[in-house]
Amino acid sequence: MQGWIKLHRKLLASPFFADPNYLKLWVLCLLKASHQQTRQLVGNQLIDLEVGQFVTGRHSIEEEFNKGIKPSKQLSESTLWRMLSRFESEQMLNIKKTTKYSVVTVVNWIQYQDLDSSWTANEQQLNTNKNVKNYKNLKDLKRYSVVRKKSDSKKEETEGEPVSKENEALITDIIHYLNAKLSTKYRPSTKEIKKMINGRLNEGYTLDDFKYVIDVKCADWLGNVKMEKFLRPSTLFRPTNFVEYLNQKMPIAAEVDGGTLSKENERLLRKIQEEQANEKIGAYSDFDDSPKHLQ
């Protein structure tokens, strides 16, 4: 198998990063996932695979994971499958099981692995199949680097773009929805709020996405004295938070007021406190004209 994948720096904040077995299994999933639509023969059956999918089974995942590892340190197929199921419970992947094989889908594969859609046909030609063999000389490598910088700079400008009439209406709807949930009086005309929401809208997120983020964090934090103060636009719609909250499962029940925080909320609280400390020393600002996206 040839080619390469991209790893987002958000992986550093994942609880799985500290566990070498979980980290290896996750990277294995990324490496096995198909980068294009394809068909795979399993026994006598042809399986259609979409981008970000791969076929596996208990025996095959055990064999691939343990290749080259001393027998005493190898993991059993049941342990590896429980780890895959943990990824699924964290909404990192989906597993469709049959009696003979399973099709695994890496969630948000295109978001993190696909090329920017704004690349021209010639630029995409350089990266066909994401294969290093396409880079035939140093000139191609330099050209690739320049194109990526231009593409990344466009993503960093999303919050600084002018607000369209359509986005103006959506920003008003979002803030009204937030105020209704929290009995607050945030104004959609506030410059900083407008800029932050406009940035997420320009990244392709929808009104329903914003409503889900508001709903899931209200269910999670409302009524908890330690966390409900963070139910505000600057926390909910921050670029590094928004995607994480959008992929969070709806809590079954909120934590009681003043009660012990869950491990997840303890992690989020530490993250928010660190961001606030960074803002005090100028390391990061919610409303910086060039927000710092993780790469």
Sketch the topology as an H/E string, one letter per element.
HEEEHHEEHHHHHHHHH
Helix content: 40-55%
The count of strands amounts to 5
Q: Specify Rg, calculated over alpha carbons.
A: 22 Å
Compact overview of the structure:
This protein is mainly alpha-helical. It contains 12 helices and 5 strands. The chain has helices at residues 20-32, 58-66, 77-89, 109-113, 121-126, 138-156, 165-182, 191-202, 207-221, 233-236, 239-246, 263-280; strands at residues 38-42, 45-49, 53-56, 93-97, 102-106.
Quick tags:
single chain, 295 residues, mainly alpha, three-stranded antiparallel β-sheet, two-stranded antiparallel sheet, 12 helices, 47% helix, 8% strand, elongated, disordered C terminus
Task: Explain this structure.
Helices cover 47% and strands 8% of the residues. It has helices at 20-32, 58-66, 77-89, 109-113, 121-126, 138-156, 165-182, 191-202, 207-221, 233-236, 239-246, 263-280; strands spanning 38-42, 45-49, 53-56, 93-97, 102-106. It is elongated and about 60 Å long. By secondary structure, it is mostly helical. Strands 3-5-4 form a three-stranded antiparallel beta sheet. A two-stranded antiparallel ribbon has the order 1-2. The chain contains twelve helices and five strands. α2 packs across α3 (77-89).
